[in-house]
Amino acid sequence: IEQAAFQNDKLAMLGKISAAIAHEIRNPLTSIRGFIQLLNPYLSEIGKQEYGRIILSEIDRANDIIYEFLNSSKPSAPMMQKVSVDMLLRETALLSESEAHMKGCEICYENFAPELAVAVDVKQIKQVLLNLMKNALDAIQDVIGERKGRIAISARQEGKFAIISIADNGKGMERATLNRLFDPFFTTKEAGTGLGLSVSYRIIANHGGTIRVDSQIREGTECKIYLPCVE
Length: 231
Ligand code: ADP
Hints:
This protein is of the alpha+beta class. The chain has helices spanning 2-39, 46-73, 85-102, 122-141, 175-180, 196-206; strands spanning 81-84, 106-111, 117-120, 150-158, 161-168, 210-216, 220-230.
């Protein structure tokens, strides 16, 4: 429990820092955008106009990324809504289907408690589920030559909790990785942000739940989300 409290402090801090950084970056982006727009009529040659267009669209893209990031990391109060776990998981499987297909990976879904319902912020929980699916697909990507990828999604009830499990047969993790999994900005990927699991952990903690991860190096990983269930 102490470990979890410490984790929450760190994540709350991350939320504050990232909101501040995002704010500091958005302001100059907005003014650069304005000045380039003003310059555009003076850029007579076609080539330069094209450059101007690219610069504007790249600024917009950077702004979108910051917006997304800000949305996912700010400690907003969840908008609670009662939903069936079955619906959440079906949609998660569906949304990951095309990427899984490209990697020759099969997604299996089994629900041992079809009536299970939770009170959650649907947008936030979907974000968590998709983060976990993306990690599973990345882990499978790394062993793609060795075996056929498989992700098993399942749900069951244990006392007052709904347990959602996402298990992959990807590359697994070493102890050292497992220990730092929820640290903000911890990543082993070349283009990773290291934010997926720290943000996910905080979202689930805000819902009164937790995330547990088991992993065997070269065998695979199972992530279990615990959420309080409702009648
Ligand atoms: P990112 O995906 O950007 O690296 P995450 O916070 O989602 O950030 O994950 C942190 C690290 O945890 C990953 O870089 C990876 O090393 C490890 N990891 C997470 N999920 C898995 C998984 N299913 N299998 C193997 N490693 C994983």
